[in-house]
Amino acid sequence: MEMMLRNMFQALGKSRSANRLAKKYGLRFGAARFVAGETIKQSIDAVRALNADGRIATLDHLGEFVFSEAEARESADMCIQTLDAIATSGVKSNLSLKMTSLGLDISKELCMSNMRRILDRARQYGNFVRIDMEDYAHCQISLDIYRELRQEYDNVGIVIQAYLYRTVQDIEDLNTLKANLRLVKGAYKESPQVAFPEKKDVDDNYKKIIEMHLLNGNYTAVASHDEAIINYTKQLVKAKGIAKDRFEFQMLYGICEELQKQLVAEGYRVRVYVPYGVDWFGYFMRRLAERPANVWFVLKNMFK
User: What is the pTM of this model?
Assistant: First the structure.
């Protein structure tokens, strides 16, 4: 039953018609738990509240479907406006983005042009930009673009997914760049030809790449709500004498709030991924697919 629900939500998240319907009705039925709002102002207010109790953030202007150069440039403009708002407000936040929203599926050149515009503005403010990893079809081109950008910029990082077989080799290859990586389990439905189908294997690989990247001396963002993974990281850094300023824990907005606050109280750096924007539906569906128990939260909101 859980697998059936997960597959259903993943399919819905890719549906253009469902996305259009969601935009019409706005952030109802529980989506506001996971999405900070539809405007930059709402997102900045959410980050300010996180900063007030010691958490930092990374803001992501959500975008799922980009079909033209104009839409891609508009999405890049929103990223730049987000960086402007972070600087003007003084909140503690980086920027996260998906390169498909910047025109990656239209042309690499368009995407690179938009990425350079964004990274130039971020560098002007002394801020940092994280490239989110998407599905497997975009993995190699994303890494290729990241390597190219690292020749010009030191304020850019990328995400690596533990459920892919290729990941250990990617970690080794990226060590030459001293890459700042966000390490995640992976949220997309992938074929067993390219990804571990069993949770235990994913968890084992996740622990392996956390250790590899930390021991390589590179900044590591451990993005997980799994307390077993968090505790593993705590024990590892203590045993290896790794300073707390060499890594951080990352979690999603609206999930495991108490755990986030507990980690801050223990002296760890905690960054919250804060998505916002009108194009929130695909993100919301992936959150439900990751943890179908969240569906009951949504159902309760529907009948309030």
Answer: 0.88
